[in-house]
């Protein structure tokens, strides 16, 4: 995919050594050309593979420094767009099988099969967690990561007993893992540079009263899915009780895919109301009530073969009309983009197959793969939203020449624009390109780019003189 994009995503990085900075670009380019391949396959020889292992183990290298340049590039892309910026926040887990799992850490306790005595076998899962924030446009174009936090846990010892003694709602937020939501909101808002443009979107885990207060302090917006039936108005009622007495503002039709990947349609009855939302009882001394908008969208006459769709959203965005409520529902539906990003990271880059031995080395490698995963997601949506854009910014002359030759003769008359070349890449990855097929997704693109890298290498091996003239 060329050196230009690598330079754009690493220019803002400073690892304290010019050689490390150059090596960062070399590794990113190699992983970007062959996403999902093992490190030896990506680097093609022992010298570069060994250099990559040393890079990941270097004490001067960290995931924060690796992503510094990408964050700066994301900020530039945000500044180059107009209108609201949706910042999607979510957490994902990476699981690994290691003979010394304590070198990496643990993510959770997993329940296995039932033993003879009737109890289920339990074991701790070795792995890392990552809380990421992804900026997108309201139309879904990913602009890049704005924050990322990596961590693992020690052995889960006595946690169940501890929960019986301590009320989690009374533990200060800065002593809980939930603090990651506030940290990323603060970092992302600062990076974007325009708090009034940012809309921070999160799932049920982000239903944190401290997050509501922080957004108000920063002058930014949030849109989160409700997890708790919070106290409302004077504290004598709840969100659900207020919404039960609220009349529907109208209906909204949506299309989606179910767990089996089948297209589905649903009709939602939409309610919205402005109300005073009170802090939890244990936090009322430190936090004031917030005047927020609540949106309930419940499916009407849902089929019996699946549960009904029911979204409960809380936001500090203005919601005074049915159209504004529907807009917020559409924005929240964009949260799925970060799930697609995680899928690309895990399945496309095959993070969990990487055989690095410590948490720090894995985090460094994951940080690089995050940039690659963002780029694949960006190209996927770019092809859909800007099909007539010039491909010169994302593909080299050599790549375009090879893709020209890979397309069948009946497609050669089509304009050689972004849609043409991204379709050609997707065809290399198994996309059938039938008239009834939807636009190519991230899976066929990452497969296609891997094959394209092999074609480019073979092209240069057949005629070494082209390496200097067909960049």
UniProtKB/TrEMBL annotation:
- List, for all copies, the residue spans of the domain called Transposase Tn5-like N-terminal: 4-61
Record domain Transposase IS4-like: where: 221-372
The processes (GO biological process) annotated in the record are: DNA transposition
**Which InterPro entries did the record assign?**
RNaseH-like_sf (IPR012337), TN5-like_N_sf (IPR038215), Tn5_transposase (IPR054836), Tn5p-like (IPR047768), Transposase_11 (IPR002559), Transposase_Tn5-like_C (IPR014737), Transposase_Tn5-like_N (IPR014735)
**Which residues constitute the signal peptide according to the record?**
none
User: One GO molecular function term?
Assistant: transposase activity
Write down the PANTHER family for this protein, in alphabetical order: TRANSPOSASE (PTHR37319), TRANSPOSASE TN5 DIMERISATION DOMAIN-CONTAINING PROTEIN (PTHR37319:SF1)
Q: What is this protein called?
A: IS4 family transposase
């Amino acid at each position: 995919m060329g050196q230009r994009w690598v330079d754009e995503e690493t220019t803002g990085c400073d690892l304290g050594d010019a050689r490390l900075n150059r090596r960062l670009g070399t590794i990113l380019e190699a992983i970007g050309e062959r996403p999902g391949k093992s490190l030896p396959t990506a680097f093609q020889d022992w010298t570069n593979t060994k250099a990559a292992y040393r890079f990941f183990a270097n004490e001067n290298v960290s995931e924060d420094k690796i992503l510094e340049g990408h964050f700066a590039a994301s900020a530039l892309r945000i500044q180059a767009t107009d209108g609201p910026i949706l910042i999607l926040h979510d957490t994902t887990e990476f699981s690994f099988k290691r003979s010394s799992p304590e070198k990496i850490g643990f993510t959770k306790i997993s329940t296995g099969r039932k033993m003879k005595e009737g109890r289920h076998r339990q074991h701790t899962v070795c792995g890392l967690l990552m809380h990421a924030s992804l900026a997108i446009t309201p139309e879904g174009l990913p602009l890049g990561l704005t924050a990322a936090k990596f961590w693992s846990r020690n052995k889960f010892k006595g946690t169940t007993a501890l929960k019986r003694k301590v009320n989690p709602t009374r533990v200060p937020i800065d002593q809980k893992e939930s603090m990651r939501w506030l940290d990323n909101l603060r970092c992302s808002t600062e990076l974007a540079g325009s708090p009034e443009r940012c809309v921070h979107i999160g799932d049920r885990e982000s239903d944190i009263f401290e997050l509501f207060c922080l957004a108000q302090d920063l002058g930014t917006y949030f849109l989160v899915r409700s997890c708790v039936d919070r106290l409302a108005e004077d504290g004598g009622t709840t969100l659900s009780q207020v919404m039960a007495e609220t009349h529907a503002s109208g209906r909204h039709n949506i299309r989606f895919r179910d767990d089996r990947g089948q297209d589905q349609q649903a009709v939602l009855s939409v309610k919205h109301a402005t109300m005073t939302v009170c802090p939890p009882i244990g936090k009322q001394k430190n936090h004031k009530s917030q005047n927020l908008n609540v949106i309930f969208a419940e499916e009407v006459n849902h089929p019996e073969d699946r549960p009904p769709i029911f979204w409960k959203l809380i936001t500090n965005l203005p919601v005074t009309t049915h159209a504004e409520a529907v807009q917020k529902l559409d924005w929240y539906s964009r949260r799925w983009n970060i799930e697609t990003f995680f899928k690309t990271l895990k399945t496309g880059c095959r993070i969990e197959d990487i055989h690095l031995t410590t948490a720090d080395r894995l985090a460094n490698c994951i940080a690089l793969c995050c940039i690659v995963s963002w780029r694949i997601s960006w190209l996927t949506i770019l092809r859909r939203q800007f099909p007539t854009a010039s491909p010169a910014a994302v593909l080299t002359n050599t790549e375009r020449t090879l893709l020209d030759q890979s397309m069948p003769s009946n497609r050669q008359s089509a304009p050689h624009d972004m849609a043409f070349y991204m379709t050609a890449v997707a065809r290399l990855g198994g996309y059938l390109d039938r008239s009834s097929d939807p636009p190519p997704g991230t899976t066929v693109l990452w497969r296609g780019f891997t094959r394209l890298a092999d074609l480019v290498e073979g092209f240069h091996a057949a005629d070494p003189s082209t390496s200097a003239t067909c960049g």
